[in-house]
Amino acid sequence: MKNKKTPETKVEKRKSLLNKLYEDLNLKSIRDFPDWMRWKLTDAQRFLFLCILSGLACGLVAVGFHMTIHWIYETWMHSSQEMGGALQGWVLILTPSIAGLVVGLLLQYGCSSAVGSGIPQAKQAYYLNFGIMHLKDAIFRFVAGSLSVGLGNSLGREGPTAHISSAVASKIGQWFGLAKSSVRSMVPVGMGAGIAAAFNTPFAAIFFVFEELLEDFSSKALGGILIAVVIAAVVARSILGEHATFELDLPTYSTHYWMLIVLAMGLSAGLHGHFFVTLLLWLRSKTKGWKKIPQWVKPGIGGLSVGLIGYTVFQITNGSTGVFSMGYDDLSSALSGNLVWTVLLLLFIGKFFATAFAYSLGGSGGIFAPVLFLGGMLGGLYGELLYGLFDLPEGVDAACAVLGMGAFFAAVIRCPLTSILMIFEMTRNYSLILPLMLGNMLAYVVAGRLRSVSIYDALLIQDKISLKRMPSYRGQRDWRNLPVSTIMTHDLVTLQADWTTEDAMNNVIKPHRHHAYPVLNEHGELDGIVTCHEIESAIQEGSDARVGELSHAKALITVNPDTSIRDVANRLVLGEVEQAPVVSKRDSKRLLGIITLHDIARQQNAILDKREED
Question: 48-240: what fold?
Fold first, then answer.
């Protein structure tokens, strides 16, 4: 019987490779290498080198992703136009659905992390997994995003580009043997490089990384991000050209009374942005409950919704295809003032619902482009309103579209500084900077008052990814005003009201020991809460009481997901309890999670530790 060969460890493999190299070069040790081969980089120099390498790699990947989507979309549109008639209609309706089904299969059997925009996934890797991301994530995201966006689904390429680039930069850090803490630093480097190449907006990319990912303007991270962003932008401009994202022939605007329209526009963008996020999250929550429909079919349903909405708008507007894919052609027309109000309104409504369906049903693609599109249409409508009321010079409608684009982005994405710089870099028109700043900040404030959690954080919460495990997640914000849903425990261990104390001890408490447990009745509704100490005391006393009887012995304090952390802490302290079930606002018997004083204290300590480090 032959002996099985013991597999080599990584260290042994490395040693054997070095020994072979020594033999080939006729050297005894590393000390015998020539001086030029023994040169070593310091940690700072190595990180700088990897930032340069990441900027180059991410720039090339981002450009490749952009060109692939553009080629697929143009080929599809050109083919459908050549068919014409009813056949063209069927192609426009069914192609996004077919693409959704293919993407659904890729997500279910290939890589589930390629769903959605990718920015929540990048944030999750950065805060929960030391920034460790896999090249598989980037490859599947590239393929799924290209098919989904290129074949008409109402999504964008910019968020996926950020995810792909973050994964590439993370993998480069892993390949070069960086420590986990240093690999983590590569994620914002890759994200910045990807956004810079996708939008051709290097300055906005830097601010986006700080506002969305880091949420803390620290000079420690600025150097590496800046280097990668500049190099990625140079790569993109070298291949795609020096032109801005939108080639607009806008005049130089002087300060004028019509600019006060940003007050109404900012308020409107804040409200509509809130409605858009609410619809998307609501649909996503509802469709997650479709247990009878296979997961891979859902993106196909989303694509069919896009096809039906897009073709309806296409027919009514005599050829506007803005609902499909990113819609940048129609957005450019709106930014040039070439669309009438009826087309603007139909495109806004169509894109609003098509994007919500495509994203909530599991499509692969981002919301940057749709959000900019919706803002451009909304602003264009205000421009048409101004023309109807006042005698204004040409170009005001185009200016309003630009201002609306920035305001809607600030309302949905919640990165106002990024929005201001992005719109400026994308249009290269400085004369609108003051009304742009005013409209953006107003929309940001309105949306923030209506919903305290931004869309990417809300998506993480909806996926039951608790922010309490992300110590620096909130940056310098007053985290105590955030809803308790950001730090509550979603994965619950519960007891049944009709169990005996022995059943509770053997079935749940011994394998899952916690301080307290929510108690459910026979219908799965919240019946009360009981502590581990109460169960143990009942067993020691020989009581034959049921778990439900113990939980009824005291008043039950519950909170809603939207209750602020500060208010929850006050209720727990005043009620002299250490935990409270989190229940639905509409149904006080529907259990959603649990919050403890320990959760709140841990978050407070994490914030204090973060500030001391800074």
Answer: Clc chloride channel (1.10.3080)
